[in-house]
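Q: What residues go here?
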C-alpha cells in the first residue's frame, strides 16, 4: 500500500527533485513525498527477529529522515506504527525518540489493528506508559476502518481520518470476460445439484468441469491466517457432499508462502493423508498474471483468518474486484467490508462452520455484488484522494470540539 501511495503521488521527490523544481513533472494531488524505505526484513522468516543489524539499519533510516527535514524542508513525518508485537513496538519507540522532535507534524497510518487492546492486556504498565509518552497526541492518525479507530484514539491522536485501502483495478474487463463465465458456472452447479443433466453448450459456457468447485486460499500460509482451517473445512465439506451423493465436489487451491518451517511440514503431512492430495493443490507464492488468473477462474474465495493484527487485508479487496463469493471470519474490522447479514462470515477457528458455509455459498452467491462494492469503496483513485485530503487537512487547524470526520464510505 505504501508503494501504491508513493507511485500515486508522483514517486520519491529526492529522485526527481531537479525535474520537479524546474516544472518538468507535475505533483499529483499536490502531495510531495520524500521516501525513506525503512525495510528491516528481507524474508518473511526475518520479520519480528531482534538483531543488531536491524538496529544499525533503523538508525540509518532515522538519520535519512532528519536529513530530508533540513535538506528539503519537509515538515510532516509520515510513519506506519507497530502492530501488537514487542520488537515492532521497540522499533517505534526508537523512531519517535529520534525523529519526532525534528518535525512540525506527525502522521501515523495504521495498517494493522489491535495495538490498543494489546497494550491493555499484554504489556507491562511501564511499556504502556513509555508508548504513550513517545507516541501520544500525534497530529493525524489515518485508520482503515471504524474498528481501527480505537488504536488511534488510545494514543489521543488530535485528528482521526478513516481512509480505506484501494488498489488499481486488476480486472477492468470483468463484465465482458469474467462475469459471463461465473454466471454460467453458477447456473450449471444449481442444475447439477437439482438432479438435471447439463447440455454440451452449458458445460462449454461454464469453462469445463462445473462439477468441480474451485476454492481459492490466497495469503501467507500460517495457522492464524486460516490455511489449516481451510484445508480441514474443504475435506469435511467434500465428505458431506459424498454422503449426500451430490454430483459436485470442492477442490482447494492454496497460493502463498509459508512463514514457519514447522507449519509447512505439518501441511505436507496432511496432504499425504489418503484422499487429501486429490482435492488440494499447493501453488506456492504467486503474483502478477498468475495470481489474476487464479482469481479469475476461482469459484469461491476462502480466508478464515484470526491473525492478531488483521485489519483490511488486500486479498479480500482483490477478491471483490474479481466478483468472487467470499468466506471469511467475523474478526476485528472484517465484517465492515461486507453487507449486513452477509452469509459468508463465520466464527474463528471453526472448520465445521466453514464447511457448511462453503456448501451454502456455492448455491446462493454469485459474487457479482462484490464487484460493485469494490468500485464504490476500494479503488486506487479513492484511496489516493482520501489520503491527499487527510494530509491537507492535517495542516489546517481543527477546532478541538469538532469530532474527526471520516474520509470515504463503507458498504451498507
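A:
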Amino acid at each position: 500500500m505504501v508503494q501504491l501511495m508513493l507511485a500515486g503521488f508522483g514517486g520519491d521527490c529526492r529522485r526527481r527533485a531537479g525535474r520537479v523544481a524546474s516544472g518538468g513533472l507535475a505533483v499529483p494531488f499536490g502531495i510531495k513525498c520524500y521516501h525513506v524505505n525503512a525495510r528491516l526484513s528481507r524474508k518473511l522468516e526475518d520479520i519480528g527477529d531482534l538483531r543488531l543489524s536491524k538496529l544499525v539499519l533503523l538508525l540509518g533510516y532515522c538519520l535519512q529522515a532528519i536529513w530530508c527535514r533540513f535538506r528539503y524542508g519537509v515538515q510532516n513525518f509520515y510513519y506506519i506504527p507497530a502492530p501488537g508485537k514487542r520488537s515492532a513496538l521497540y522499533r517505534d519507540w526508537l523512531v519517535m525518540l529520534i525523529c519526532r522532535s525534528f518535525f512540525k507534524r506527525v502522521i501515523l497510518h495504521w495498517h494493522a489493528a489491535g495495538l490498543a487492546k494489546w497494550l491493555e492486556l499484554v504489556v507491562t504498565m511501564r511499556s504502556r506508559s513509555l508508548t504513550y509518552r513517545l507516541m501520544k497526541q500525534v497530529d493525524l492518525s489515518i485508520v482503515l476502518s471504524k474498528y481501527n479507530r480505537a488504536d488511534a484514539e488510545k494514543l489521543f491522536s488530535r485528528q482521526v481520518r478513516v481512509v480505506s485501502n484501494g488498489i488499481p483495478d486488476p480486472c477492468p474487463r470483468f463484465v465482458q470476460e469474467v462475469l459471463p463465465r461465473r454466471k454460467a458456472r453458477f447456473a450449471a452447479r444449481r442444475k447439477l445439484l437439482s438432479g438435471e443433466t447439463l447440455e454440451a453448450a452449458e458445460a462449454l459456457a461454464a469453462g469445463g468441469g462445473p462439477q468441480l468447485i474451485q476454492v481459492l486460499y490466497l495469503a501467507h500460509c500460517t495457522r492464524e491466517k486460516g490455511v489449516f482451517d481451510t484445508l480441514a473445512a474443504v475435506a469435511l465439506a467434500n465428505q458431506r457432499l459424498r454422503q449426500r451423493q451430490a454430483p459436485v465436489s470442492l477442490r482447494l487451491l492454496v497460493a502463498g508462502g509459508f512463514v514457519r518451517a514447522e507449519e509447512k511440514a505439518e501441511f505436507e503431512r496432511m496432504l499425504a493423508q489418503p484422499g487429501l492430495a486429490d482435492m488440494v493443490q499447493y501453488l506456492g507464492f504467486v503474483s502478477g498474471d498468475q495470481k489474476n488468473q487464479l482469481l479469475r477462474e476461482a469459484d469461491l474465495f476462502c480466508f478464515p483468518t484470526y491473525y492478531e493484527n488483521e485489519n483490511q487485508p488486500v486479498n479480500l479487496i482483490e477478491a471483490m474486484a474479481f466478483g468472487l463469493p467470499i468466506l471469511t471470519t467475523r474478526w476485528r474490522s472484517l465484517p465492515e467490508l461486507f453487507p449486513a447479514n452477509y452469509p459468508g462470515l463465520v466464527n474463528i477457528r471453526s472448520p465445521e462452520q466453514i464447511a457448511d458455509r462453503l456448501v451454502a455459498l456455492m448455491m446462493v452467491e454469485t459474487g457479482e455484488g462484490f464487484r460493485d462494492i469494490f468500485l464504490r469503496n476500494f479503488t486506487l483513485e479513492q484511496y489516493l484522494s482520501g489520503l491527499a485530503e487527510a494530509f491537507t487537512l492535517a495542516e489546517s487547524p481543527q477546532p478541538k470540539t469538532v469530532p474527526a470526520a471520516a474520509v470515504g464510505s463503507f458498504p451498507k
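A: Context that may help when evaluating the design: Confidence is low (pLDDT under 50) at residues 18-22, 401-412. DSSP finds 17 helices and ten strands in the chain.
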